[in-house]
What we know:
The structure holds 2 protein chains of 2 kinds.
Chain A: H1 3-8, E1 28-30, E2 36-40, E3 50-51, E4 58-59, E5 64-67, E6 76-77, E7 82-91, E8 99-107, H2 127-136, E9 163-168, H3 177-184, H4 186-200, E10 204-210, H5 214-225, E11 231-236, H6 245-253, E12 268-272, H7 273-284, E13 291-297, E14 305-310, H8 315-321, E15 330-334, E16 341-342, E17 356-361, H9 362-367, H10 380-384, H11 391-399, H12 403-408, H13 419-423, H14 430-488
Parallel strand pairs in A: 1-14, 9-10, 9-12, 10-11, 13-17
Antiparallel strand pairs in A: 2-8, 3-5, 4-7, 5-6, 7-8, 13-14, 15-16, 15-17
Chain B: H1 2-29, H2 36-44, H3 58-67, H4 79-90, E1 106-109, H5 119-123, E2 129-130, E3 138-139, E4 159-162, E5 182-183, E6 189-190
Antiparallel strand pairs in B: 1-4, 2-3, 5-6
Helix pairs in contact in B: 2-3
Amino acid sequence: MNLFDRFRAKFHGGIQPVEWKETANCPIQRLALSEQYILPMKQHIGQECVPLVAVGDRVLRGQKVARSQAYVHAPIHAPTSGIVRKIADNPIPHPSGLGMLSLFIEADGLDEEKKMPCLADYRNIDPVLIREQVRMAGITGLGGAGFPAFIKHRRDDEFPVHTVILNGVECEPWLTNDHRLMLEHGQQIVEGLDILMHVVGAKKGIIAIESNKPDAALNIQQCIADFSQDMEVRILPTRYPQGGEKQLIQVVTGKEVPAGKLPLHIGVLCQNIGTVKSIYDAVVLGKSLTERVVTISGPQTPRRGNSLVRIGTDLSFILSQHGLTDLSEVKVIHGGPMMGELLPNLHVPAVKSTTGLLAWHTAEFEKSHEQPDPCIHCGHCVQVCPVKLVPNELASHCKHDDTERAQAYHLFDCIECGCCSYVCPSHIPLVQHFRYAKGMVAQQAREQKFSEESRQRSEAHLQRIEKEKEARAARRAKVLAKQKALEEK
Amino acid sequence: MIVDVLIAAVVVACMALVIAGVLAYASKKFHVEGDPLVESVNDLLPQTQCGQCSFPGCRPYATAVVKGEAEVNQCVPGGDRTMKKIADLMGVEASQMDAEDLGPRLAVIREDECIGCTLCIKACPVDAIVGAAKQFHTVIADQCTGCDLCVEPCPVDCIDMVEPPKQLAQWSWRAVRPNKTRQKRGGKVET
């Protein structure tokens, strides 16, 4: 990287939070099998799945148990062998504490597995088949957003993909699961990148790693050296939120993904490290997505580390395996501390997008939430916003429910990274304002749609009544005419 | 001299004739059915058809507002927001709401008690109740506007108005509310 590249390769704003990546030295450990697994029917962006099994059915690990008819969805697979005991509503890891239809699987301890055909010789296999395998394996983006991975693996003649970028940035503090994967499964990740390059027909593969993970970068570099000429490791200066897809693409390629467009439109495919590892598992080993690496950390966790967790494992079980059994005075964040969400209930299952579980003591957690002071217009939030918004202005519009002006200030370009809230000297919860306003806009759109539909139904109702009235009047006129005719006779 | 005056008069008369023709044609061609203002007001209303405004539906209320026969603050389910929008459109001063809104409501029929009289079906302004004579009826929850109009006609009182169940798809973050008590720098607590 020459001096010019260094100058150019930068996204606007960003912060450098304290890292707290103390679990970086903890090897990934397989979590013990639990007795029960709960699978929510939607663990991805897109349509909710429908169960394919019934209560009482025996399922095997890796067996598809739910799917949807829609294009945008990821099927769900049983995490271990066992019996389906119940299909009912159950809370999911979500700040609302609300739930959705879930499958309850009682494990039989045998852990029998059903695999898909292996496509180990993937270079000689049609990319369409490999893409289908990734779709069938139920792989979603494991970085937290949960977008079905196969959708991005499209060969588009209009927008050919020339570069595949692997996101090994892991810029959230505390989280180290991608770091550990790169250290322990470097070979598989590099091979996964090769699969992706073959699927989309890309000529170049870049693995982006932040400078705070030199050991991971070194390991990947060694793996690449005896594998391919078309790949390179790009070491980036540590900065949050560099792991955001659009930010990373800007840093690596120097091109900005325009607002409202996809990376595909500038010929780039970006995929998270964990996702690529599971793509390798699906294509070469024929395994569906039934487990993922989760960082379990936070000041209140006695044994911090990285665990290989089956999807559907109860979070309280995971925490208890790490020594945290008393959950009464504990607040747990699902995901990273910057973008993750506080869980109101810990008896919920781990899902595909569970990147980390961070536990704090309740008192300590509440201490950090100071009362906001008025905005002093210092402009720090403007300096750090990675999408070049004006957070203080935007927040004041959101606060006063002025959704129209908030949208004019590009509310929906906000990626909710939390940089503005982090630097605010007045402790204003800016992101909370933005999330609220986004919800309001969605709510208003729903109301608008509902009232339009109601209006149509009401009009149809009135028309029908009118028609019935006319028909009755016509019938009566007919009868009257008949009577008259009879009388005249 | 008189000829000049006559020529001018004739020219002006001809022009008037031509313009009158164009205007007559335009008024036929671009004729608008109904009052467009009524449409705009109607679009702002929530279309629950509940009649809480004392008019038999949203459009009649919109018509009355435009005619000046009704105040802008009578739409209860629309609440403050709708009232402000209508006041803006009509160019009048926004006032206090007439009555308190109870929030969204949903009608639920206790099906085992329903005798299948079809009276609620007839009362529903948006056709959100299905059923047939002597068969139990049920409410299509997604289409119910919570207008309350089906409750009264039911002879066996088997219709309840309930709070709609919370759904994940409709959940959103709540607003940031300042705490009621606030430590001031001087150490005084302001309430």
